[in-house]
Write the structure tokens for this entry.
Amino acid sequence: MIHNLRTTHARHISVDRAIVDLLELQELDLAPGTLTTSGLRELWGCSQSQVSRRLASIDRLTHWSVQGWQGGREGFWLAPRLAPAPVLPEPVPSPRERWEALRSQWREVVE
């Protein structure tokens, strides 16, 4: 179980702990999703400040984001970070503009 990994192997390494915490939340089908401080305190058996630190460590992971609401005291949303939107190419001409361009090219060929 993921819980056993945290207590036996990764206690002293914060990044590993964040990964194990995230894996545990995924295993329990809590991530992605909403989390509460009280629920995490009960799950992890720690104080509110430790919950905050552990969520901050998860937030520092490259592909995951923790966002709080109500001042971040009680509720959190844990979800994968969205990749930046791709840069869109130059505006695509409208069908009318494309037709006019083709028509003028055709006129040049015919004349």
